[in-house]
Write a structure and sequence with these properties.
By secondary structure, the chain is mainly alpha-helical. It has nine helices and no strands.
């Protein structure tokens, strides 16, 4: 606690970097996954290909992925963001596709019978009803990204991992505990917030 009180600015800086990496990765991954997920929901072939590729990316060990990106983008935040996007795709694509496919066919038929165009059926019927499943995927992806971003400190991307690894190299427990606990609190806070949003969407859909 004494170290934290004396270095709270360093902790806030690391936390800000951590949030920036995770949030940027999730926003980009969500946009990409929404497009691919909608496409996959309409085509079994696209779904198989999308899940096969994103699943392969998901299985690559984090440190190996970060290392493979060094010759391409070098060290820093870009490296970490690309890695986090890759880890998010499978979860998000799968949930977007599953959510849309779970919409009852009679509802989409009724919408088309009312004269809605395909884009209107998607935006006014399918996506709103699929939102709880999509948010459930976003919840899993967000917690995963926040946790894995800790390792991004190995490629000089910053974040809370900087405190943890710096503390480990100096055998200084307060730094390790501060970085680890802050990362845990951030992950739990995001998880609880998205869980509440998911429950609200489920209640409204019901």
């Amino acid at each position: 606690m004494k170290w934290l009180l004396g270095h709270w600015e360093d902790v806030l800086t690391a936390l800000g970097e951590h949030v920036a990496i995770a949030l940027t990765a999730l926003v980009i991954a969500s946009a990409v996954s929404l497009v691919i997920g909608v496409w996959a929901a309409k085509s079994d072939r696209v779904q198989r290909i999308a899940l096969a590729i994103s699943g392969f990316l998901y299985t690559i060990p984090t440190l190996a992925f970060l290392a493979l990106l060094i010759p391409v983008v070098g060290l820093g935040k870009t490296n970490a963001i690309i890695c986090m996007i890759a880890f998010s795709l499978m979860i998000l694509i799968r949930n977007v596709s599953a959510g849309i496919r779970a919409v009852p066919e009679e509802m989409t038929d009724a919408a088309r019978g009312m004269g809605m165009r395909p884009i209107e059926v998607l935006t006014r019927v399918e996506l709103p009803l699929a939102l709880p499943v999509i948010v459930a995927g976003l919840r899993i992806a967000a917690v995963t990204v926040i946790s894995v971003t800790v390792v991004a400190a190995y490629v000089n991307a910053g974040g809370l991992g900087t405190l943890i690894f710096s503390g480990m190299s100096n055998d200084f427990a307060p730094k390790i505990w501060t970085g680890a606990i802050t990362a845990c609190v951030l992950a739990v806070a995001v998880d609880l917030s998205l869980a509440q949003l998911e429950n609200l969407l489920k209640a409204r859909a019901a």
